[in-house]
Specification:
Length: 202
């Protein structure tokens, strides 16, 4: 579902409930951009569901798909975190986390039952939130004299760049995201403005 210029993620948080033999599995899906961002979601749910026996999770972050983490949180190894991650991956989304909260119902479900329950809760949560296509951006710092503000902002608007930080004084600095597909054109335009400085963000 991913090509060189775009990626897919979920638009907003969602929650779904799956039940099996008295146990309740609450699946929470969140748009997530950093591990810190995820930890906050997990802390909030642990407070909200303090009496739950397990808070299992998986997340997939970034565009190279190598930032991920899974946790079975005390369930038998491989029965919770991996099945949750499998649902994220088969949906083709990134920058997404899912936490499944389990309330034990008194009956052991066994390994196949647990895998099915965690997988189902994750899958249902993903089905309840719209997927959105986002542009892959390359981040650059642009510095220029205040008199060139109009020219610089014209380029930013014309090529659909995003501005994440700005400081406007006599000398101006912008941190912008340039759509990957338009990178060469945008850098060429800025070079054309001569006294505009452009460098990749560290």
């Amino acid at each position: 579902m991913q090509n060189a210029d775009h990626y897919f993620t979920i638009e907003k948080p969602s929650m779904a409930e799956f039940k099996d033999r008295g146990s309740k599995f609450l699946g929470y899906a969140f748009p997530t951009t950093t591990p810190e961002n995820f930890k906050q979601h997990l802390q909030d749910l642990k407070k909200e569901h303090a009496k739950a026996v397990h808070h299992c999770f998986a997340y997939r972050l970034g565009l190279t798909n190598n930032i991920f983490r899974v946790s079975d949180d005390g369930e038998p190894a491989g029965t919770a975190g991996r099945p949750i991650l499998g649902q994220i991956d088969s949906s083709g989304v990134t920058n997404t986390s899912i936490i499944v909260v389990r309330y034990f119902g008194g009956t052991l479900l066994g390994v196949p039952g647990l895998i099915n329950a965690y997988k189902s809760a994750a899958s249902m949560a993903l089905q309840l939130t719209p997927f959105v296509q986002k542009t892959i951006e390359c981040y650059y710092e642009v510095s220029f004299d205040y008199t060139q503000m109009g020219d610089v902002m014209n380029v930013v608007k014309q090529y659909g760049c995003s501005v994440s930080e700005q400081s406007m004084q006599l000398f101006c600095n912008l941190r912008i995201g340039i759509p990957k597909a338009r990178l060469e054109e945008v850098l060429y335009k800025f070079k054309d403005l001569h006294t505009v400085g452009v460098k990749p963000c560290a």
